[in-house]
From TrEMBL:
It holds the Pfam family HTH_3. GO terms for molecular function: DNA binding. This is Helix-turn-helix transcriptional regulator. CDD domains: HTH_XRE. Residues 4-58 form the HTH cro/C1-type domain.
Amino acid sequence: MNRIKEVLEEKGIKQIWLAEKLEKSYNMVNSYAQNRRQPSLEDLYKIAEILNVNPKELLYDQIIDKDE
């Protein structure tokens, strides 16, 4: 699970802008943001660089227990 959508919202950045900067399709970036697909580590680092954040900020720091 990633926090790409939350970080984009915090920064007021649109997914389509990130897709252009990342040179990926909007659909691919949207699937990352919706957690339907996870970016490769290489893409995660590129996203962090583009958004000027630490890559760790794009990841949840703990596993969410769905039973709770």
